[in-house]
Structures are given as structure tokens and as C-alpha cells.
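User: Here's a chain of 232 residues. Predict its fold as C-alpha cells.
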Amino acid sequence: MWDTLLRSISTRPGAPRTNSSAAAAFRGWLAQVKFNEFPPLALLAALIAGCAHVTPPAADVAAGPMARQISLANFDYGLLGAAIFEETNRVRVSNGLHALALHPALDAAAAEQASYMALMFRAQHSNPIPGEHTVVERVNRAGLFGPHIAENAIMMPAQPPAGSPRPDYTYAELAALIVDSWLNSPAHRANLLDPEYTYLGCAARAAHGVLHGDQRVFATQVFFVPFSRNPG
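Assistant: Prediction complete.
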């Protein structure tokens, strides 16, 4: 739902921006709506809010798609999600833990929240859609049920600071920065390095603010332990 809305928003270079009061009004309205069905009016409101694609940061990879620099015009959501997944497992293995397995339903749950965060331009774990208020509800709605579910979420600048040698991060670099930020937060680190989890889903979205150059990336990862060894 949120992903469809986010993809409908103008991402063309030079797309018109609106003032902060318009964006604030949209976000306030969106937070109060009861989402039994997403009203068509929300599409127009989202256009006014000015969300868009973005560019990312931090790590060296010799070759491959994750070594590509990110451009606003061709931001690859799936590639950044995959880079976050790989970096998470690299960190886990380096800490003596098993790597987590990928599950598409967890990717979908993570994407739902990442899209919502990009629309609201804020990192958070809550969501106003009935049946998707919490990460547990989102995972259950994706068709998975288990005794342990957790979520990490973050908002970060999409581009390196002014004066950096390069104007844009590579996908691997940004994934490394995102994971490192979670590692520097005790609660997020506990999720990322928990030996009990067996499955992981990752997603990333991007948006620009109302000010020129205010570009952010929003990332979410969902950790999961199933009731059975082989979740559907």
C-alpha cells in the first residue's frame, strides 16, 4: 500500500517542491486517517508533500552492482536492501554468529514500513494501517507467525557530507553505514547480534524534504524466528 503510494510520487529531476507548511499539513492529516482503504485523495496529498528517490553512503567492494554509486535518478531500492542484508550477515559471522536466511515475506513487511517512513519523513516503528500497527502485525499479515519478531529502523542522510571526495555513496557503503549506526545503538545492536533469530528481511526507501538538498534514506530490517523450522 505505502509502496504503491511512494512510487506514484514525482521523482523527476526538477519536480516542484512545496513549502514546509504544506508538507506538515499532509503528514498531520495522514497520521490521523483511519486506513480501512487508502483514499485516492492521499495520492494528491503525497505529491504535495514532495517525497522522492534518493542517494546513499560507506564501504569498499572490489566489483559487482553493490559497488555502484547511487544516483537520485536511478535509485535501486532492491539493491540497497540486498546490501543491508549482506552487510548484516557479514557482521554476524564476524562476531561468531550464524548467518540469517532471507525470507521474501519479511522483505515485504520491511518494505511496508520503510515506505511509510519515507512518506512521513521520519523513522518509526508504528504504522496507522489497521492490522499493521506493529512489526508483529505486519509480519503476521505477510503470512508468517513465530514466537520472536523484532525490527530495526533508521533514517539517514542519503549523500556524504559536504567536502567529501565523492558526491555519492555506493550501495555497499551506505549499507555499511546503516548497519554500523544500528550497531552503535544498544537496542538495535541486540537485535542484529541476537543468536536466536534465523530469518531476516531488509528494505530501503528514499525521500527528499522540502528544502533543496535535504535527501534521506529510510531502512528497515525485520528479524524472525518461526514456530516451525521451515516457514512457508
